[in-house]
Amino acid sequence: METPQREYWVYILASLWGTLYVGVTRDLRKRLCEHQSHATAGFTARYDVTRLVHCECFRDINAAIAREKQIKGWSRAKRVALIVETNPGWDDLSEAW
């Protein structure tokens, strides 16, 4: 019997005013729900950073963590360029859920 593959997500959230947040999670839908409901006090709740504007899926947690750290180390301009490349309208990718 084959072991099911796990998925790990690196994601970028944005507020309506353009504040960005980069995170990593195993369950993107659950984590996004936590951000959107402000279930945890912190940066995303304080600045209402709730719109999913970019995400990438990985099978290896170490690769996902490395990618998160890479994106966090980038300038804001480089993060914005990544979002624009994959989501030019900055649409909330979670709206269809």
Please name the defining characteristics of this protein.
single chain, 97 residues, alpha+beta, 3-stranded antiparallel beta sheet
Descriptive notes:
The chain has 97 residues and is an alpha+beta fold. The chain is 38% helix and 22% strand. The chain has a three-stranded antiparallel β-sheet with strand order 2-1-3, with helices on both faces. β1 (8-14) and β2 form a beta hairpin. The longest helix is centred in the last third of the chain and has 13 residues, at 61-73. The mean pLDDT is 95.
Major β-sheet strand ordering:
2-1-3
Low-confidence stretches: none
Estimate the mean pLDDT confidence: 95
Q: What is the helix/strand order?
A: EEHHEHH
**How many strands appear in the DSSP assignment?**
3
Strand content: 15-25%
Helix and strand content put the structural class at alpha+beta
Tally of helical segments: 4
Gap from first CA to last CA: 31 Å
Q: Biggest sheet: strands, sense, closure?
A: 3 strands, antiparallel
Helix content: 25-40%
What's the alpha carbon Rg, rounded to whole Å?
14 Å
Choose one word for the global shape.
Answer: globular
